[in-house]
Design brief:
- By secondary structure, the chain is of the alpha/beta class.
- Among the domains are: 57 residues; 151 residues, Rossmann fold, CATH 3.40.50.10130.
- It is built from 14 helices and six strands.
- The chain has a six-stranded mixed β-sheet, with helices on both faces.
- A hairpin with a 6-residue loop joins strand 3 and strand 4.
- It is globular, with a radius of gyration of 22 Å.
- It starts with 12 loop residues before the first helix and ends in a 5-residue tail after the last helix.
- The model has no long low-confidence stretch (mean pLDDT 92).
Length: 306
């Protein structure tokens, strides 16, 4: 790699970045100087959160993306979405069609918006070379949990959700909630916001082993977060967190997207609060195996799980 300030060559990016101190340049200023990228809406320089963010995005925020979409022609919107998803697929080596939870953390609109522009979202994604995990847009049938079904709550579950149907406490190999006598079915991992942050941050390897164990035994895991996704960005900035959380939200959400692409037996669902989580968990168990065929976050965002 060549330093464009002095034309000195380096074996790797880390060495180049370290060398920039000799020129009194920050990594951010260096890339903004020699690889200028601007927000399509405002014309301002793209913020340098990370190198990946800088070179992957054409907007500084989803708010800017939304405003740009509102004032752009359908043709321009289509061109942008195709370019963004195609570039991301090639650069990241993506296999599966991005889920609603993934899309909401990226500079691209959600499933409903894309479907309005292109028709069926999954057919559109397939045309770009993605493989679809899901094939349905609805959970058909009765979504009330039958009275003879019993939910098991793991003994290690702290501050467990209040379950209003038959339930008992027992030890689970993985996950926090499952239906009794439903081996190889649906399992739910509940996360408060701080738990989600640490699990997808410092504890990712441990959590990934849990996903692998559940997959090996045929279970489908839904990670239910009792907070909206927008709160993930706010969490590291809370005053009581101080310096205990070293990872930024972008790293945590990158890990979430990576797991979504890596495991076919996994979904993430962010809901408004704990009360909604308590209600939705019963709906999910009533749906059971059908959850494998539909994007649960998409249904929630459309108001079809409440």
């Amino acid at each position: 790699m060549t330093c464009l300030e002095c034309l000195q060559n380096f074996d790797n990016e880390a060495s180049l970045h370290k060398h920039l101190k000799a020129h009194s340049l920050s990594v951010a200023f260096y890339y903004q100087k020699y690889f200028k990228r601007v927000d399509l809406l405002t014309g301002e320089l793209i913020k340098f959160k990370t190198k990946d963010f800088y070179f992957s995005n054409e907007f500084n925020s989803r708010a800017n993306l939304k405003r740009w979409l509102e004032q752009s022609s359908p043709e321009a919107q289509k061109e942008y979405i195709i370019r963004y998803l195609t570039n991301r697929k090639e650069k990241k080596g993506l296999i599966y069609t991005p889920t609603q939870a993934e899309l909401k953390t990226l500079m691209v609109p959600g499933i409903n918006y894309i479907s309005q522009l292109f028709g069926d979202y999954y057919e559109f994604a397939k045309s770009l070379g993605f493989q679809n995990k899901f094939k349905n847009y609805k959970l058909e049938g009765d979504l009330r949990l039958h009275h003879n079904k019993k939910i098991i709550i793991d003994t290690r579950e702290q501050n467990a959700l209040k379950i209003n149907v038959n339930h008992e406490i027992d030890t689970l190999k993985f996950g926090d909630y499952k239906l009794k006598h439903n081996d190889g079915g649906l399992i739910i991992e509940r996360k408060a916001l701080n738990d989600f942050y640490s699990t997808l941050g410092f504890q990712r390897e441990r959590f990934e082993r849990e996903i692998q164990r559940s997959d090996k035994e045929g279970y489908y895991m839904i990670v239910l977060i009792e907070a909206p996704l927008s709160d993930v960005y706010k969490f590291p900035l809370l005053p009581y967190i101080k310096n205990r959380m070293k990872l930024g939200a972008e790293v945590v959400l990158h890990n979430m997207r990576d797991l979504c692409q890596k495991y076919i037996n996994l979904q993430f669902l962010f809901v408004k609060n704990r009360i909604e989580a308590q209600s939705i968990i019963e709906t999910l168990f009533a749906a059971g195996e059908k959850c494998r065929t539909v994007d649960i976050q998409y249904l929630y965002d459309k108001g079809e799980l409440i």
